[in-house]
Write a structure and sequence with these properties.
- The chain is elongated, with a radius of gyration of 13 Å.
- By secondary structure, it is mainly α.
- The chain has 2 helices and no strands.
- Helix 1 packs antiparallel against helix 2.
Length: about 55
């Protein structure tokens, strides 16, 4: 795996984990903007992984 692919994969996984953490914290404290942001972070991370997979 090249350095670029490794870094992109790492950043995508970090975005997914950050989004999940935002969702969990927000839902534990009540519904808020964090739910929307969490879903968007997860979607961006998953989308980036899918784009990286298609390019290979």
């Amino acid at each position: 795996m090249s350095t670029y692919r490794g870094l992109v994969t790492f950043m995508a996984l970090a975005m997914i984990l950050l989004g999940l953490a935002m969702l969990i914290v927000t839902l534990r404290h009540g519904f808020g903007v964090g739910v929307i942001l969490g879903v968007l972070f997860v979607a961006a991370g998953v989308g980036r992984l899918l784009m990286l997979r298609r390019k290979a």
